[in-house]
Design brief:
The protein has 215 residues and is an alpha+beta fold. The chain has one domain (11-214): VC0467-like (3-Layer(aba) Sandwich). Helix content is 12%, strand content 29%. Strands 1, 2, 3, 4, 5, 6, 7, 8, 9 and 10 form a 10-stranded mixed beta sheet that branches. The N and C termini lie far apart (43 Å).
Amino acid sequence: MTEVSSLTGRLLVATPALADPNFDRAVVLLLDHDEEGSLGVVLNRPTPVGVGDILESWAALAGEPGVVFQGGPVSLDSALGVAVVPGESIEGDRVPNSGPPSTGEGAATRSRARVRRGDPIGWRRVHGAIGLVDLEAPPELLASAVGSLRIFAGYAGWGPGQLEEELVEGAWYVVESEPGDVSSPDPERLWRSVLRRQRSELAMVATYPDDASLN
């Protein structure tokens, strides 16, 4: 089998040509990517549901807007917590943790993660300062360490080779993530802001109109 270069921790930014309504102007944080497939969460799909409405104990740690985000079209009845721990290094080591996501509040992905000495209890590093939160753990264990928390309902998933095919077809731009992407207070503008910061022709794509017929 051809080895797949991991894109874990990077962003998939939907190109204007991507026709799937589930991912129109989506910005996806990849939590896992290897030869077994890919898994991520959409960072810019806030819902009207408040975090306190479904996970009251975690509401105080959720960043603004304090709502649940739709992480993708798969397993909408599961919840994932993604949090940034300030001061963590940008390069995060990862080791395999096999098995698909489980459903329920404590949903855990097969994301590669490594628990380092000093990492907060209840937080598993995915990439740099970004990690997954164990939603079944007491929130007070993370209260003093977490800089921002997002709760996602569902996730985006790709089978073996599926994401690679979509990349070849030009459905996604792949760019580096920043910790602030997880906690953007204005998620509706995240697609444009991520593209605008690129030092390449991608910065021009940020000006692409919402209605292509106006271009």
